[in-house]
Amino acid sequence: MPLFLCEVIKLPNEYLYGAYGHIGSTVAQNAVQAGTVPVYIGVAPVNLVRGYKDAGIINRPVKVSNLVDAQKKLGYSSDWESYSLCEAFAAHFNNPIGNIGPIYVINVLDPDTHKAETPTTKALVFSGGRAEFKSDKIILDTLLLAELTEGVDFNVSYNFAKGSVVITTANPDEPLTGTITASYYEVDLTAVEASDIIGGVVNGVYTGLGALALLYQEHNVVPNILAAPGWSEVPAVYNALISASQKINGHWDAFVVADIPIVAGATAVDTIPKAITWKDTNAYSSERSKVYWPKAKNNVGEIYHLSTLAVVEMLRADLTHDSVPMETPGNKRVGISKLYFGEASTNMGYDQQTANQLTQKGISTAVYWGGNWVLWGDHTAAYSFGADVDPRAIFDVNMRMLMHITNSFQREWGTAIDKPMDRQLKDTILNREQEKLDGLVAIGALIGSPKVLFIETENNLPDMMNGDFRWDIAATPTPPMKSATVYVSYTDAGFNVYFGEGGNA
What we know:
Elements: E1 18-20, E2 38-42, E3 61-64, H1 67-74, H2 84-93, E4 103-107, E5 120-126, E6 130-134, E7 144-145, E8 154-159, E9 164-169, E10 178-184, H3 194-198, E11 200-202, E12 205-207, H4 213-219, E13 225-227, H5 235-244, E14 255-259, E15 263-264, E16 267-268, H6 272-281, E17 289-292, E18 295-297, E19 303-305, H7 306-320, E20 338-340, H8 352-359, E21 363-369, E22 372-376, H9 396-413, H10 423-442, E23 446-453, H11 461-465, E24 472-477, E25 483-485
Parallel strand pairs: 1-25, 2-4, 2-13, 13-14, 14-17, 17-21
Antiparallel strand pairs: 3-4, 5-10, 6-9, 7-10, 8-9, 11-12, 15-16, 18-19, 18-20, 21-22, 23-24
């Protein structure tokens, strides 16, 4: 008996994805999991944080609850291309549609390692005991001011709104005046490479994606969404994300949200055919992921990866349903004003019907529809219209719901390990898991009659003698309404109205 059962899906003769009348998503309101935990891996301007060495913010998972919290813990810069995690901070905590969190981030920038070889010097002109200059590359902890002593002669702070270093007199009776030379080191962001994002675990030292293993033990949460905007478009990073998403800590499964680049090396990927070819060539096709293309720009000129906006809407939808991931981020409004294909591109975008050339190839995007810009695409990256696809890989909600069930089982029964495995415990697990499945059916997250079974053939005597027991769950996640079509036919029967009930008047 298979672990998961799905209805047999017959592909229609015509690919349909859109509201040929209406498209909607399933609605629900219950949960059995602790919550949705998105984890971003990337670069944050921790060089702007005083005491970064001892703050536990390099290659460690950090919880962020709002924008001020992000600035305080990890710094902030408007240069999202250099500091990729700042894009996530803005998307979650400075969102015109509404802020949503918390999120967890793993920053790989280490100012001690990714640092310029020689210091920068700057002549500062003090007025009223104060000087200010713009820089988001400065390592604040390295700032020196001539022969003066910090805390005695001067104080240093950072204005994140202006992106400026602020130096003020420490002793108001002796204000600093005139021109004073400052020296400091800057971070070398070109030194951060894909290998830093990928990372690993060596002799108890965790780096990059390897630091995911620290999330559960340090924060007691289970990661279930992974993203690395600005980096997931690198094939090696995408593959590492897929690998890292499976059995985190030996247990947890997470869903990856990634991007296809708009520029790959010196080659522009700025048309639909190019995006499809790039996806196929680079094998961005894991059922454990969604991939997005292109980027998007809002009305103040900020450029977002669509993967970031998708994580925001996944989290928003999940929390609406008490953390049950039963609703796709497709057709969710996002605060953008246009698609972005690169400054040199002449591509002006596309309508919904044209966008379906992407979605039928497992590439999600964004379109203008119903008076708003919305995310568009409810498939996993493994989907290709007309191809032989495992039914569970057709929709993102399918995979996320199956992961939800397995993660929930492990969270609940992990504390029962090493307890006596008597008949009562076996039945308790069966009854509780069935209760949870029935609850998911009641809220519309699953359809049919899902069952949890303790099968004799799967629990042979040698396994049980060694304390190894297995339960099998067969479940069908509720699919989204990918298309809705109405057929209207002409009839001449209405002309009878001219003649009354008798036919003549």
